[in-house]
Fold:
Amino acid sequence: MSLMSSLFYILFVFFTTSVPTRELLTVIESSGTLTIGCWITCGTLWKVEIKHWKDALEETTRQSQFDRKLELKGLLEDLAAEGLISRQDAQKVYRSGHSKERGDAHPLTIIADRRLNRVSPPHELLTLEALTVWLARKANLPYLRIDPLKIDVTSVTSLVSYAYAARFKILPVDVTEDRVLIATAEPYVREWENELSPILHRNISRVISNPVDINRYLLEFYALTESVKRAVGKAASNRIDGTINLEQLVELGRAGKLDANDRYVVNIVDWLLQYAFDQRASDIHLEPHRENSDVRFRIDGVLHPVYQLPTVIMSAVISRIKVLGRMDLAEKRRPQDGRIKTRAQTGSEVELRLSTMPTVFGEKLVMRIFDPEIVVKSFEELGLSSNELSRWKQMVSQPYGIILVTGPTGSGKTTTLYSTLKQLARPEVNVCTVEDPIEMIEPRFNQMQVQPAIGLDFAGGLRNLLRQDPDIIMVGEIRDIETADMAVQAALTGHLVFSTLHTNDAISAIVRLMDIGVPHYLIRATLLGVVAQRLVRTLCPNCKQPGEIDDDLWQSLVSPWKIAKPKTIFLPGGCLECRETGYLGRMGIYEMLRTTPALRRLIRADTDVMKLREQAMKEGMHPLHISGAQKTCAGLTTIEEVFRVAGTGEDF
Ligand SMILES: [Zn+2]
Structure:
C-alpha cells in the first residue's frame, strides 16, 4: 500500500509541475481505473488460486476417505450415535472384538456375531444382513442381497482375476454392454474402481452386500470357473481332430483322460450338489445340448436355470455322478436308475435318486433330492389341525387294519406315511415296507425294493414280508387285485397296513378298491380310514401382507359349510427369501375319512357314494377346501392356492 501511495505521490508531483490541471485530472482518473483494474485482476487470480488449492485439498481428503477400510470402532460409534445399539454394548463389542479385526474379519461380522438387538423398537436382531442394509444406507449406495441363481458365473468371473477380486474383496454380480455391477462391503475403498474402469471399458456401479456372501461366492464362483476351464483344457488336449461329437465324448470317458474321477470334474460335481442343498432344490436337472449344456434346479416347484457347462464337461460330470450312483458307466443308450447317499454341509444325510434318459445330445440326468429332515416331519409340521391330528392318531393307534393315503403324484403321500411310520417304529415293533422306489432309507424300518426284472412285485414282496413276523407293513401302492388281496390278508391276520392309492378324494378310495375287485365285506372288515391330501404352498413369513377377502370368494371356498369369514387374511408379497414368489415351503391339506360302524354299514355291494359321503361329513369329515380354509384363516396360505391344488370345489 505504501508503494502505491509513493507512486501516486510521484505522479502527482510530476503532473502538477509539468501538466496543465485539466489534463492532470484526466490522467488521475484513468490511473485510478487502472489501479482498480489491477486489483480486480489480482483478486480474481488469487481466488482462482485458492479454489485450485481447496479442490486439491478436498480431493486428497476424499481420496483418503475413500481408501479407508471400515473400522470396528468407527462403526460402533456410528451405530451408537444413531441409537441402534447402546454405548455400553458398543464398548463391550469393541473390547472383545478388536483383536479379531486384525485377523481380517470384517467389522460388521464381528458386530453381527454378538447377536445384539436394536435398542429402540421393534428391537429386531441386528443380523449381518440388517447391518449391511444399514451400511449401504449410510454410504448412500444401493444394497444387494446376492442371489447366486441370478448370476451368470461364467461372464462375471471373466471380468476380473480371482487374485484381484480377492485382494479388494469385490465380486462382479452383473454385467451388460456398458456397465458392470460390483458388490463390495467396503464402501470407502475405491482404488480398484479407478483401475478397473478403463480396463473393463464399462461404467462401474457399486452395490453393498453382506461380506460373508461376497467371500463365499468369490471362492465358489472362481473355483468353479477354474475347474471348468481346466477340464475344458484337458478335454481339448485329448481331442484328436478338433471336433466334438457324441462318440468321441464316450471315448473321452472311456480313455480315462477326462474321466469321471478327474480332479476338476470331481470339484464341479461337489459344488453342484452343495449348491443345490443350499438352495433348497428338490431336483437337479443336467441337460446336454449341442455345445453348451444346462444345469437347472427345481425350487418350490419351479425350475431355475443355474449354470451352463460345455457339453464335453457335462458328459464327464454325468459320468462322475453315475459312478457315485453305482450305475453302468458304459451304458448310455438305455435309461438307468441309481441312488447316492451323501452328507450336506450341515451334517445331515441326503439321499439322491438318479434317473438318466438318452437324448439326441447325450444322456440327460435328473437327481431328485430327499432330505430326510424334509421327508420326515412331525405331525404338526405336516400341517394337521388339532381335529385332523386326533382323527389320524385314532386311526394309526389301531392294532390292525388298512389305512390308505390318496392323492395325485407329488401330493406329499410319502411324507405323511414315512412321518407316521417313524413315530410308530418303536423297538418292540417290527416295521416292514415294500416300496417302489425306496424314497428314504430309515434304519428302524426293514425296507424292500420292488424289482420287476426278477419278478419281485408288490404282491410278491408283501407275501414275503408276511413271513418276516411284521407288526406294521407299508406297501408302496395298491395297483392290482393281487396286492390288494395280500394287504387285506395281512390286515385280517392282525397287521396294521399302510398304503397309497391314486384317487382324488377319500370316498373314491372305497370305490377304487371295489373296482380293483376287493369284495365289499372285506373292505368293511379291514379299512380303518382314508386320508386324501394335497400340498399347498405356504406364505413366505418374511413378506406376507394383511389383506381382505371378497365375500363371494370366501363363500365359494367354504360353502356349504358355515365358517365365518376372518377379518384379515394374508396375501403373498415378494422378497428375496422367497424369490419374489410370496411363498416359501409347502404344507398338507387333508380330507380324513374314518370308517365308523355307521359308515361300514353303508359299504355294500351297491354302495351309494353320495350317501357314504353324506354320512362321513355328518361324522366330521371335512373336504380339502375346508382344511385349506382353516389354513387360510391361520394366515398360512391363500384362497387362490387352495383352489389351485384342490380345484374349485363345485363337486361338494
Ligand atoms: Zn418373501
Q: What stands out?
A: The chain has 26 helices and 18 strands. The CA atoms of residues 170 and 501 lie 54 Å apart. Residues 240-257 have pLDDT under 50 and may be disordered. The radius of gyration is 37 Å.
